[in-house]
Amino acid sequence: DDIYAPSYVTSMVSELTNRRLTALTLSCWHDYDTRLGGCGFVDPHALNDVDLVPHLLNDPHAPMKRLRDEAVEGAVYGYGFSYVHMRNAALQHPYPDTSSGEDFPFMLKLRDVGRVGLFRDTTGRCLHLMHGGNTANSVMHRPVAREQMSALEVAQLKMV
Length: 160
Prior knowledge:
The radius of gyration is 16 Å and the shape is globular. Strands 1, 2, 3, 4, 5, 6 and 7 form a seven-stranded mixed sheet that branches. By secondary structure, the protein is an alpha/beta fold. Helices cover about 30% and strands about 20% of the residues. The protein has six helices and seven strands. The model has no long low-confidence stretch (mean pLDDT about 90).
């Protein structure tokens, strides 16, 4: 349920190999919410205290820094739509055999045993679709106007 620009695979694999990484994940990206009909930019590193309110409900006495660090780590390493990784690494350290939530522990394992890089997708190589049936929700940090959306790399596709 995501849309990738024609340059996505080539650019991500090139970044992976040039930096000699085991895996690479997007550290920011664009979302399109089909329910609201709008696009937004997601940057987990820009989380603020208001974004952490749902986490506070689960652990009201937790220090804000810890909650923020955990939320950023979960967003950056927990969304499989944004990964590329070496085949051999996945064979040696396979995804957990679970029906949900396998992405985060997989990427943390690769980070522990290899080199995992972050890539800021500010040009819209990947458009993550939010439709209400997602297993996790991204937090949009700024809206993207329709005219800005047409400049995203995914807009090169005839369907966008």
